[in-house]
UniProtKB/TrEMBL annotation:
GO-annotated molecular function: DNA-directed RNA polymerase activity; mitochondrial promoter sequence-specific DNA binding
Entry GO CC: mitochondrial DNA-directed RNA polymerase complex
Phylogenetic placement of the source organism: Eukaryota, Fungi, Dikarya, Ascomycota, Pezizomycotina
Keyword Transit peptide: yes
Protein name: DNA-directed RNA polymerase
Keyword Transferase assigned: yes
Length: 1393
């Protein structure tokens, strides 16, 4: 008798959040012990790591465990299987074709795929079983939808199911699993009755019993069975159930099921703003046109209004849940309705639809009306071709046709329009750091494909037949039960049934749309949009001066040069960009908006955040799925609980729009002026006069360059205003809502909000606009912190805390004037760099002071605690660097230390000395440099920015200080910004190098480790390369010339000469496939995604694209792996600190939000937040992080061998070269490779047999010579790490064309092509510029178009001669730690301030 009971599954079950106590945890003390500042608590007693039951607290770091290791280095490209035209690819891609064919009802196509899979795979292959199950599940769906046994079609479907199961599964020797048997059981229950049904059920149950107790138990107690099905099955197989179990389920099944909203703390919106009483967002180009302004209000966002504030709380919560579900499921449909209404309003007024003043909504309806018939016609052609395939010719429709059939054409047309138009208004571009309108075709096609795939997933969830899948509670409980088993027995102790679940889940996770098919579909759709989308453009006739209106294409396909490469772009018509800049953009608001209910808690890879819209928890680049594989393995091990809870804590913070700031922003926007960071409507630029004709050609060239610079600036302002217009429209749509920002993270663990358009990680205008939805009484400390926050926002952040309080109190008159007359008064708040945040603080403080009791005022404004160059803080703690710790406020002090000011002063001093000595550039700069000139290079230097990148950063600041100085000049005697920035960057790097010795040592050590990993072969690879059984047969000869040797042959034949050694290295490079992988203190595995990948040519209807799709069998990109590892490792540490702090705040009931290293909470909780931030940082660094990392590397890369480089001219290099020369004939005769010799020597030395160890010691190889004569200093420095240490400048200056490759951001690899306007939620004018410093070259980005021309030829860089030798994998010792004790941080009040 089984003892386990089935869990009842009812749809009324809801998820609940952990309790949030408002009391601090044990060990906290709020006593005050700081003589310098009586208001700062300094009893930082750390809370115990253990709970009362002795188990570790969920907010504490868990003990170190053996790392997860997934070896993919010997994996080869998937075998391509062809079924028919358009159906070919790897096993995983065929599974996607299978699912697509099933969903569009082409079951004959699905049968052909299953047949080919069965031919190419073993009978017990998981993909074969998965395919049969999916096919039979579709028959079950048809059976249910046709009424089961009540209809003839239902009976025919059941017969087809049973026939397939017997002939294609059982007779072919395929062993069914529990999931497949459950499908057959449900089919029998739905399609049969009486004794025949009972016999069939008993047969399936007996079959389950023969497969093992685990399978039988899973079948009998499956969560897929509804209560009625369970009752019927239980009566037939009653002997397997406990007494009373069936009666309990039967009684529960009689109760009606009602879907209800999840139970969580619902924040009722208050202080509603009547949108009818405030001005519209500025519209231009419509003077005298009489256009009726379409009423938008909340209907622009959601069509179902909220209940009144006095309605019952449960009813309001239920309505909010319904509205959120409606937004997610029908956002595209709502957008279409808005376009239609806008067009109908024009027709009612009798306005000519060809007028240039047509609003965006009506214009998009016109595009939609033209695009939809074109797509419907294309769909007809697809169906005609797929219905009668012609095997004699291939056609793109065979490839993208089935994908096109998956979605309604109405949704496809609207999605294409929304995606392309929102990409025009995307904000800043990652690469150029500028606002741009041009759209690269590669990112446009891949992003649109991802959008359509996500929309398809949403559509699939809507079409699911009720009862065919387990409900949320059942799925969650099954997951929890599986995790419990894993935690108790380990992943190797799972039952057969549980292993099958994990395996099937892994297969499902891998099934996505084939990359090439997705690109072909997107290209076709974009081409259709280009052909059909037009807009009226009015111009003045040059001769008659008459206004002439003509219809022009809204988008154009062109070629353009980017970084010397000619690629395809889609360019919007200038008339369209004008409209996007000046008109309300409510008609474009559709996807991934802020939520109006608390997001779903994260529980697995794509379960969390939006209620129905799937989103992965990690943003990964296209192609290589290593990061996902490691995450799923860690999740199966039960290690992701803290990561899930940390992201959930960030996601469930309720926000709202600050009504007063919104009114001011709307007024400022409508004025068209350049107010705060708002771009002006009509920017003015002084055009330099054209030189006289007789002037020399250099002056003419300089004039043209200045004109180009002005045009670039004008375009940037134009694009920036367009994006800000978008943000303001989103704010208007949600102004009366309580909103939430679901978060996910990049591959390093850094959290980002998923809603792209408006979130708290935006620029100053957005940060000033958002406040917490729930207020908390200020109290005495809160009022003080509110004053400090206002001074900090106003730019007085380098003063002590008491000086900031004094600053605010001395400026109360300005503060009141700013709050009462923000645009008509003295505008004091506009003097701040963060003007909108300053204005929000002015509103908050004046309201608090005007209240009867300011300490009881409910404050909602987030008060920020910012780290001092957080990357350097981590480096200083890692290296115990006392000097560095003082510079970044890890050491206690009476006032905040400012590393940027320290570097700026050192630079100014050097410049002044040079100016006195007569240096021309120094004389121009003397006394004019500011802290802002050095801040960005200092901030990003710790994240690996190159010298060239720093020059670019400095040049942008100098352009503001010296607007009349040209950016460059052919004459070196003419002072220009490029020369000035080079000079300043040199001084900055020199100052940094002298200040942070400990950080330099840690950076260098991290680079050394990455160098060895990037040049290593795994034991599996070594065995494959050296074993006689696995070595490839000799190559055939063509005529008198042999074929090019394979890499392993090259490794054999190194003869000690420089040329041969270089050939050996180049031939070995394709074999290096080990990427740098490490585990954060929160047990999140981080996998660097940088690989060299061969291009993949894809012919599309627009142009031929050459795309990169990295795979695990591609060799790694050594330069990227080395250069990105130090900054990525530091990013993973600050991400850990942030998530750990979020967990601790959530535990004690505090509101917590973050922008990486800027943490926000209510004013009254800042003191407690300070304690928790220090606790989290100390808890992290109390562990030996670098020592643990070295241990992990030793375990992860155990048994590997790496190709070390030794200087050829060194004594050791000469000895190795001499040995090779002397033994060249011996190598040729034995046909043995050095790799095989070194591997054998390592095996003998590690043997337990003394005789074998002696043999190993007696072997003479290059490795043994290195062991006897060399040490760590013998290694030749890696050229990839040159100039990469903190403050280092490259010894060999590369050409700028080559050096420019180093300014791309590795975070770009983490950004999916969808969901982020401008590629990032970060604004580059903020502290988040640290992202830019994670600089690596971009010559092998995951998706890149074909380079048809190269404008610049890179200069070839010479390097020292080297010899290479295979060595057993070891890692250098961690640099000696300095004397700084991280626990001293407890007394530092300016750690975050």
């Amino acid at each position: 008798m089984q003892t386990q009971s089935r869990r009842l599954a009812t749809v009324t079950d809801q998820y609940t959040n952990g309790a949030t106590s408002s009391m601090p945890p044990p060990g906290f003390s709020m006593s005050f012990r700081n003589d310098a500042d009586k208001n700062v608590p300094f009893d930082f007693s750390q809370a115990s790591r253990a709970q009362e039951d002795g188990k570790p607290r969920h907010t504490a770091l868990r003990p170190y465990e053996d790392p997860i290791i997934i070896n993919s280095t010997t994996q080869n490209p998937h075998k391509l299987i062809k079924v028919q035209h358009g159906i070919h690819g790897s096993t995983v891609e065929l599974l996607q074709h299978l699912h697509t064919s099933i969903r569009i009802g082409r079951l004959s196509r699905a049968e052909a795929i299953i047949e080919r899979l069965a031919e190419q795979s073993k009978a017990d292959a998981p993909e074969v079983l998965h395919a049969h199950t999916a096919y039979l599940e579709e028959h079950l769906r048809i059976l249910v939808s046709e009424g089961g046994r009540a209809t003839a079609k239902g009976l025919d479907t059941l017969k087809a199911m049973q026939r397939w199961f017997e002939t294609e599964v059982r007779s072919q020797g395929i062993r069914p699993d529990a999931k497949l048997l459950i499908v057959m059981i449900r089919g029998a229950i739905r399609g049969m009755e009486g004794d025949g049904r009972d016999r069939a059920l008993r047969r399936y149950v007996d079959l389950a019993e023969s497969l093992g107790e685990d399978v039988q138990d899973e079948v009998l107690r499956s969560e897929d069975l509804d209560d009625n099905e369970f009752t019927i099955l239980g009566k037939v197989a009653s002997k397997y159930f406990e007494q009373g179990e069936l009666e309990e389920v039967e009684e529960a099944s009689k109760q009606p099921a009602v879907e209800s909203a999840p139970q969580h703390d619902y924040v009722v919106p208050t202080d509603f703003l009547d949108l009818d009483q405030i001005p519209e967002v500025l519209q231009t180009g419509q003077k005298g046109g009489g256009l009726h302004r379409v009423k938008r209000a909340m209907l622009s966002y959601i069509s179902k209004p909220a209940l009144p504030a006095d309605a019952p709380l449960d009813a309001q919560r239920q309505r909010a849940y319904e509205r959120q579900k409606l937004v997610e499921e029908t956002s595209v449909d709502i957008a279409i309705d808005q376009w239609r209404e806008a067009d109908q309003e024009l027709k009612k007024l009798g306005i000519n639809t060809s007028m240039q003043t047509k609003p965006m909504g009506a214009l998009m309806w016109q595009w939609y009306s033209q695009l939809l018939p074109a797509l419907q016609k294309e769909l007809e052609e697809v169906k005609k071709l797929l219905g009668a395939p012609d095997e004699r010719r291939d056609d793109d429709r065979y490839h993208y046709g089935p994908l096109l059939e998956l979605l309604p054409m109405e949704k496809v047309a609207a999605t294409v329009i929304l995606w392309v138009v929102t990409r025009v208004a995307r904000g800043r571009d990652w690469d150029t750091k500028a606002y741009e309108f041009d759209m690269k075709l590669n990112s446009l096609t891949t992003g649109l494909g991802k959008q359509l795939e996500d929309e398809c997933s949403m559509e699939l969830s809507r079409r699911k037949v009720k009862g065919l899948q387990a409900n949320t509670r059942a799925a969650r409980r099954a997951k929890q039960a599986l995790l419990k088993k894993i935690n108790q027995a380990g992943s190797r102790g799972l039952s057969t049934a549980d292993k099958a679940k994990v395996l099937d889940t892994d297969l499902l996770q891998q099934v996505t749309w084939p990359f090439s098919h997705k690109v072909k579909l997107s290209a076709m759709l974009i081409q259709k949009l280009i052909e059909t989308a037009h807009l009226p453009v009015t111009r003045e006739h040059p001769r008659t001066q008459e206004k002439v209106t003509q219809m022009q294409p809204a988008f154009m396909h062109r070629s353009k040069y980017f970084s010397g490469k000619k690629i395809g772009v889609v360019i919007p018509n200038p008339a369209l960009t004008n409209k996007l800049e000046s008109e309300p953009l409510a008609s474009m608001i559709a996807k991934r908006m802020p939520m109006i209910v608390e997001p779903k808690p994260w529980t697995k890879w794509n379960e969390g955040g939006y209620l129905h819209y799937p989103a992965p928890i990690i943003r990964l680049p296209q192609g290589d799925k290593s990061g996902k594989d490691y995450f799923l393995a860690a999740d199966a091990k039960g290690d992701m609980g803290q990561v899930y809870d940390g992201l959930t804590a960030l996601s469930k913070v309720p926000w709202k729009v600050h009504k007063d700031v919104f009114r001011v922003q709307l007024e400022a926007w409508n004025s068209g002026e350049e107010i705060a960071n708002f771009a002006p409507l009509n920017p003015h630029f002084d055009i330099p006069p054209e030189p006289e004709i007789k002037t020399d050609i250099d002056a003419k060239r300089t004039w043209l360059l200045r004109l180009q610079e002005i045009q670039n600036k004008r375009s940037g302002v134009h694009s920036k205003r367009c994006f800000q217009n978008f943000q303001l429209e989103v704010a208007r749509a949600i102004v009366n809502e309580t909103i939430y920002f679901p978060h996910n993270m990049d591959f390093r663990g850094r959290a980002y909000p998923i809603p792209p358009y408006l979130n708290h990680m935006g620029a100053d205008n957005v940060r000033g606009l958002l406040v917490f939805a729930e207020g908390k009484p200020l109290g005495e400390t809160g009022l003080r912190w509110l004053k400090i926050h206002l001074a900090t926002a106003a730019g007085h952040d380098k003063a002590s805390l008491e000086e900031r309080v004094k600053f605010t109190e001395e400026h109360l008159d300005d503060i009141y004037d700013s709050a009462r007359r923000p645009l008509d008064g003295r505008r004091w708040w506009l003097q701040s760099e963060d003007a909108w945040q300053t204005l929000a603080a002015c509103f908050e403080l004046t309201k608090a002071l005007d209240s009867p009791d300011p300490t009881k005022f409910l404050s909602t404004i987030p008060v920020q605690q910012d780290g001092t160059c957080n990357g350097l803080q981590h480096y200083a703690a890692l290296g115990g660097d006392e000097i560095g710790a003082r510079q970044v406020n890890l050491e206690p002090g009476d006032r905040p230390a400012d590393v940027y000011t320290a570097v700026a002063e050192a630079v100014k001093e050097e410049v002044h000395k040079d100016a006195i000595a007569g240096h021309r550039i120094a004389k121009e700069l003397d006394g004019k440099l500011t802290r802002k000139c050095v801040k960005q290079p200092v901030m990003t230097n710790v994240y690996g920015v190159t010298f060239f990148g720093a020059k670019e950063q400095v040049q942008r600041q100098l352009a503001v200080l010296f607007p009349n100085v040209p950016a460059s000049h052919r004459d070196d005697n003419v002072i220009n910004l490029r020369a000035m920035s080079h000079y300043v960057a040199t001084k900055i790097f020199k100052a940094l190098g002298s200040m942070f010795g400990g950080a330099q040592a840690i950076q260098h050590w991290l680079g050394q480790c990455a160098d060895r990993v990037a040049m290593c072969l795994t034991p599996e690879q070594i065995k494959q390369l050296t074993s006689p059984e696995t070595k490839a047969p000799p190559k055939a000869k063509r005529g008198n010339r042999s074929l090019k040797p394979e890499p392993e042959d090259k490794i054999v034949s190194s003869d000690g000469t420089t040329l041969s050694d270089r050939e050996t290295l180049n031939s070995a490079k394709p074999l290096f496939k080990s990427t740098v992988v490490w585990t954060t203190p929160l047990r999140l595995p981080v996998v660097q995604p940088y690989r060299k990948t061969n291009t993949k040519d894809i012919k599309t209807s627009l142009q031929n694209l050459r795309l990169h799709e990295p795979q695990v069998w591609d060799p790694i990109s050594k330069r990227k792996q080395l250069q990105a590892f130090p900054p990525n490792f530091i990013h993973s540490l600050d991400a850990t600190h942030m998530l750990l702090s979020a967990l601790k705040c959530n535990e004690v009931g505090m509101t917590f939000a973050s922008i990486h290293d800027s943490f926000w909470t209510h004013a009254c909780d800042v003191d407690r937040l300070s304690i928790l931030l220090r606790d989290a940082f100390i808890e992290m660094h109390a562990e030996n992080i670098t020592g643990r990392l070295r241990e992990e590397f030793q375990a992860r890369y155990k048994g590997c061998m790496y190709l070390a480089a030794v200087a050829r001219d060194s004594p050791l290099g000469a000895s190795i070269a001499q040995f090779r020369q002397e033994n060249k004939d011996t190598f040729k005769q034995s046909k043995s490779s050095e790799l095989a010799m070194e591997a054998e020597r390592a095996r003998l030395l590690n043997s337990e047999d003394a005789e074998e160890r002696k043999q190993g010691e007696e072997m003479v190889t290059p490795g043994s010579i290195f062991a006897s004569e060399g040490d760590e200093s013998a290694f030749a420095p890696s050229v990839e790490l040159e100039g990469r240490r903190l403050g280092d400048m490259p010894e060999h200056h590369e050409s700028e064309a080559n050096d420019a490759e180093h300014i791309a951001d590795p975070a770009q690899a983490a950004q999916s092509s969808e969901g982020i306007v401008g590629g990032s939620v970060l604004d580059k004018d903020t502290e988040a510029l640290a992202e830019e410093g994670s600089a690596i070259d971009d010559d092998e980005m995951p998706v890149e178009e074909q380079a048809t021309e190269t404008l610049k030829v890179k200069k070839k860089k010479t390097s020292a001669r080297k010899v290479h030798v295979w060595l057993p994998m070891t890692f250098p010792e961690v640099p000696l730690k300095g004397a700084f004790d991280v626990t001293r941080l407890k007394a530092s009040q300016y750690f975050f301030h």
